[in-house]
Amino acid sequence: MKIDKQHIEDTNQKSLDSHRASFGYIANRLTQKGIEVDDVVQKLADFQVAIPSWALGAGGTRFGRFGFQGEPRTLKEKIDDVGAIHALTQTAGAISLHIPWDLPEDYKAIKQLAASHSIVFDAVNSNTFQDPKNAAVSYRYGSLSHTDEAVRQHAVEHNKKVIEIGNELGSKSLTVWLADGASFPGQTNFQTALNQTQKSLREIYITLPGDWRLFIEYKPYEPNFYSTVIQDWGTSFMLANECGEKAFTLVDLGHHLPNTNIEQIVSTLMLKGKLGGFHFNDSKYGDDDLTVGSIKPYALFLIFNALVYGMENNPQNPYPAWMIDASHNIKDPLEDIIQSLEAIQEAYAKALLVDQKLLNDAQQDHDVAMCQEILQEAYRTDVRPLLEKSRLQHGGALHPIKAYRSLQVRKRLIDERGMDSVASGL
Ligand code: PSV
Ligand code: MN
Ligand code: MN
């Protein structure tokens, strides 16, 4: 299924006058404040976010799964779905694969299909949290941290294989997220588990191609409920440092205990040049994997403020890899991702409006009230017309969700794939 550019243009026609009026108004106001509106619009266009292959079908919980009709059955169909999102939003120019869920059969055909949608392959993800098919080992009690050398070796080999697959596709990074940990006090020895993990990561790290990066994700709990081997950013940072200069920490917004100051973590990592990647989602309680910006939009803005500051002031930190990491249980996954992309762009645009010079002056003067005014002045600005402009300039939809519905994308996917199709996985 492919979305016709002409269709998008036709749907845009209906909203063009209203867009022009609202864009003119905001562009005027921002210009009067000395903001280069064209620069902001260009930065929005350049900000591309990878879509994880596992977020295109319904996720489910441990209580069950309510499938979504027309789910992608193959890797090709997943790429088509990301292509549809990208055509509408012009913000999703990459897909992130999970191995072995997304084993490509014909590399050439897969690459051609992705290119036809203007999509590149972002980080590849290894899976050592489910038992490999027909394997002699089990990850029940861990993978890279396992007490048994044979299990660790199996997990290391899997990661090497994932790098090879990614290399064929043009990926440049490997993301490692471990489920390793313990559900009960006394179950594992913390020091042994950490040491084994470090050794295993190092073995993977030394096989990375020269221009690749290793992203190490952390998470405080789940699926293990007492301890996680890579529990927090400090542990990930330490492991990345011990691996070497191509290893980085990856921040997943949902992987923090409630009320953690994530913007401060982002600032610290960028200062030290170790923020490699970012997984966007939102949550109220834990790793809820909800639509970005649906629960704590101000926190998202503050995080983007730290990211924008870091991108402008920390040349020691490479440009981070951006990805959505969400799970859709109720909404149409594609609509949910479109909403997430809008929220990401909105927070980014608002952060770009923060007057950093004025903020720095106010900080130096210890004018605390003014510091807050400056941040909230940016946050309260309705930046949506800037997002519209950026999409319009690149052939995207002025209103992606409206266009998605008027183009009947879901209906077309159901016609093509059937009512009962289930997203492919292990
Ligand atoms: C599990 O929490 C998780 O959502 C991690 O965030 C990973 O990035 C993702 O699964 C895929 O392995
Ligand atoms: Mn994640
Ligand atoms: Mn997660």
Automatic annotation (TrEMBL):
Gene3D superfamilies with a match to the protein in the record: Divalent-metal-dependent TIM barrel enzymes
Pfam families: AP_endonuc_2
Presence of keyword Magnesium: no
Every Xylose isomerase-like TIM barrel domain range: 102-288
Keywords, sorted A to Z: Isomerase, Manganese, Metal-binding
Keyword Isomerase found: yes
Protein name from the UniProt record: TIM barrel protein
